[in-house]
Design goal:
This protein is 48% helix and 15% strand. By secondary structure, it is of the alpha/beta class. The chain has two domains: 218 residues, Spore Coat Polysaccharide Biosynthesis Protein SpsA, Chain A (Alpha-Beta Complex), CATH 3.90.550; 71 residues. Helix 2 links the parallel strand 2 and strand 3. Helix 8 crosses helix 10. The protein is globular, with a radius of gyration of 20 Å.
């Protein structure tokens, strides 16, 4: 990581992959809400697009903000696929004492920068998780609420409305002290979107806690997550849980003797909850079935050297 600028408090890192409109909306919100702040900050956009035309469009969006706001906005290109690779490339040039990470499909709330800065100033936590909220216009949309309640494939985060210590991270809205990366390493580039698909944030949280680090939940540092209806389908539900299973195998490397009983248990639970009409628990068991089935297939392939 680049030597810290003693005055640079927060570097906001955004790894982006082919979401031009969403990125522009996020950067507009950041410039509006953070622009008048006395807290020294920078925004580092890591362009991970592999479509040349979209890559140029993303570059043009960032360049427009650079022309308007100067070197407060910075651009990093990482052509190798993977969100973690893009984030790690941005970490390498970031100057802040605190490194914040937003997904490119969120929108920030007005006080995010100040409440995040105060959180790290006033608390001993090594990392901060902020709420990831349903957009206000969708809070009473019954079709959306039913679909999200069924599939739970958009990563909203909202704990009880108070600051507290937690044990995991969700990458759409989190911040980490820069020295943590020197201590435990960067994000695992085998994981996350563009690689295994998911779980890079969970694995990093495990490493952080194992090293003695602490994660705090800050209810004031909120973002809103866009609603992508393509995620609220049976097909995406299956893909998501299969990705989770394969990702977990990368960083936990469970044995077949552990995976198989869990798979059998999920089959039994799915049948039971189907019979009793418990829709929520039925889908939870169904997701776990896809999780362990994918994990078993991947583990078998590794052990036998064959394609499953």
């Amino acid at each position: 990581m680049q030597a810290q600028n003693s005055d640079m408090e927060i570097s906001v890192i955004i790894a982006t992959y082919e979401r031009v409109a969403s990125l522009e909306r996020l950067l507009s919100g950041i410039s509006k809400h953070f622009g008048q702040s006395q807290i020294e900050h920078e925004i580092v956009v890591a362009n991970n697009s592999r479509n040349h035309e979209i890559e140029k469009r993303i570059d043009a969006v960032v360049c427009r903000f650079q022309r308007e706001y100067g070197d407060q906005f910075r651009l990093v290109r990482e052509p190798s696929p993977g969100k973690c690779r893009a984030q790690n490339a941005a970490i390498g040039v970031a100057k802040g004492k605190i490194l914040a990470f937003f997904d490119d499909d969120v929108e920030v709330t007005p006080k995010w920068l100040s409440v995040a800065w105060k959180f790290f100033r006033d608390n001993p936590f090594d990392a901060m998780q902020g709420p990831i909220l349903i957009p206000p216009q969708m809070e009473n949309d019954q079709e959306f609420l039913r679909a999200q309640g069924k599939f739970r494939t958009i990563s909203f985060v909202r704990y009880r409305p108070k600051m507290k210590e937690i044990k995991t991270l969700t990458g759409g809205n989190m911040a980490i002290r820069s020295e943590v990366f020197a201590k435990i390493g960067l994000f695992n580039e085998q994981l996350g979107p563009g690689r295994s698909g998911i779980s890079e944030d969970v694995e990093f949280a495990h490493r952080l806690i194992k090293s003695g680090g602490r994660i705090g939940y800050n209810p004031e540092a909120a973002v809103y997550h866009e609603v992508d209806w393509s995620r609220l389908t049976e097909e995406f539900f299956r893909q998501r849980h299969e990705q989770q299973g394969r990702s977990r195998l990368i960083y936990k490397n469970q044995s077949i003797a552990t995976i198989l009983p869990n798979l059998m248990r999920t089959v039994w639970c799915f049948g039971w909850y189907s019979l009793t009409g418990n829709e929520r628990k039925k889908y939870r068991s169904k997701g776990r079935y896809f999780h362990y089935r994918a994990m078993l297939a991947e583990k078998t392939k590794r052990v036998t050297g064959s394609q499953v």
